[in-house]
Structures are given as C-alpha cells and as structure tokens.
Amino acid sequence: MKLPSLFKTPRYQRFHVTPRYYDPVKEEIEARTSRIKSIVDADKDVLDSGDMPQSRISGSFVTKKRKGINMTQPVIILLLVGLLVGYWYFGNIALYTFGLISSVLLYLKIKRII
C-alpha cells in the first residue's frame, strides 16, 4: 500500500531481454498461431456482416488507464493549507481534530473500507 505524497517517486524501468538460444517448439507454435490467425481472418472477411459474437474474455485482460487528473496532490496541499489556517484561527483544537480525522482515515484505508 502506497501512501499519497507531495513528491512524485520514479517508477521502475522495464526492459526486455531477448533469449540467445533457438527454441524449435516456440517457432512451431508461432507458425501454427499465425496460420490459425490467417484462417480466422479469412473467415471474418467472409462473415463481413458482423454475425460473429464478440468474446467476453478478450476485454477482461486489458488494463484500463484512468483518464483524468490525479487529485491526491492538490487534496494534500489543500488539507495542509486548511490545517495551517485552522491553527491560526482555532489554535491546538485544529491540530487535534486534524490528527483524529487523519488517524481514522488511515485506519480505514489500512482495513480497506474506503
């Protein structure tokens, strides 16, 4: 579980290693799959009217990226500014209230209720 922060942390870098050995079984599997794909594409062209049902499994493994703005950093900044303004107006009561609310929210996040 990663807690939100004000600073962006670098993500890990991915790399791809190409094997240095020849795998005849893998080549045979790739040849078969390309042949079957060409047959399926030919059948799909024949049934151009769209009568083939869509597979429900194919969309299940696609990762969906959320489009929009990441709101955690602005929310954290607003909370800190609110804490500062609350401390100026109300004193230590604002600090205690902020500590109580943040500890309850952290507990709920750890228990995965929120």
Features:
single chain, 114 residues, mainly alpha, 3 helices, elongated
| Cα end-to-end separation | 13 Å
Structural class call reads mainly alpha
Beta content comes to: under 5%
Please bin the fraction of helical residues.
40-55%
Brief rundown of the structure:
The chain is mainly α. Helix content is 54%, strand content 0%.
Structural account:
The chain starts with 23 loop residues before the first helix and ends with a helix. The radius of gyration is 27 Å and the shape is elongated. Helices cover 54% and strands 0% of the residues. The protein is an all-alpha fold. α2 packs antiparallel against α3. It contains three helices and no strands. It has helices at 24-46, 72-90, 92-110.
Topology overview:
Blueprint: H1 24-46, H2 72-90, H3 92-110
Helix pairs in contact: 2-3
